Amino acid sequence: MHYKTPRFAIREVSEMTGIKPVTLRAWQRRYGLIQPKRTEKGHRLFSEKDIDLIREIQGWLNKGVPIGKVKELIKNGAQSSQAQVVDESLHEVEQLLQAIAEMDSGKGDKILSGLFKEYPTQHVVDKVIHPVQEALESVKATQRSLQVSLFQSLLITVSNRIIESENKVAANKKALLVSFDSAGSVDTRIHALLLSDSGNRVTMLEGVEDISGLSEMLDPGKVSQVYFHCSKNIGAKVASDIKEFVESKFYEVGYSPLIHQVYFSNQEQA
């Protein structure tokens, strides 16, 4: 008996692997790393073997290998599981720092946009955003705040553009990101991008101070996940409201590390 090989659409693969569709396309078009089949209408269909290859690519990236060098390693039969970690940032860090120092927002935008297109969000955060933030702390005081401000502006501009673009083609999964950080938070946008990487259509609420009425406003049939975020301490009232919301069990709930720490600390004390 003949069985058809299972095939998956690009959105399904994105949800399974956490890799944005735009990144999967870049890995195919620019680097020739994956070669999915096409339907008569030109839509990509991925096999389980393709998905295994995508995970192998992720393994190399996690080891610190730049995307442009992965194909040769795979071609030579190297195994990412046996490779040593290459503890280095992407070379684009220096290019980005130079663009920031020269106040060249156009160049900075181009570099960041390319990185988010070619790499998973978490990889960009670990290998580019954090190293740039650390480097900017060493800039002389008279220029530091100016360069930090430009970098934040670039991140907000690029991330907003990506989120808007991904929301237009996202699946039916809808995530609500509730942030207690002030409006314009870079941290909030990074978490929004991570939610988007998982195939969610993301709605951001920023500068939130009170969530006691959140359950009344939401329709469980229209929101699949609620993610609470903050990079600063939250008050006891907010922590209590989050606990009450979680206990309603209508939604899948996620938390940023600080809220997770506060919530579970309160759970242990209860």
From TrEMBL:
Keyword terms of this UniProt record: DNA-binding, Transcription, Transcription regulation
PROSITE patterns, A to Z: HTH_MERR_2 (PS50937)
Domain HTH merR-type, residue spans: 7-76
CDD domains assigned to the protein according to its UniProt record, in alphabetical order: HTH_MlrA-CarA
GO MF term set: DNA binding; DNA-binding transcription factor activity
InterPro entries membership: DNA-bd_dom_put_sf, MerR-type_HTH_dom, MerR_fam
Gene3D superfamilies assigned to the protein according to its UniProt record, in alphabetical order: 1.10.1660.10
Protein name, entry field: HTH merR-type domain-containing protein
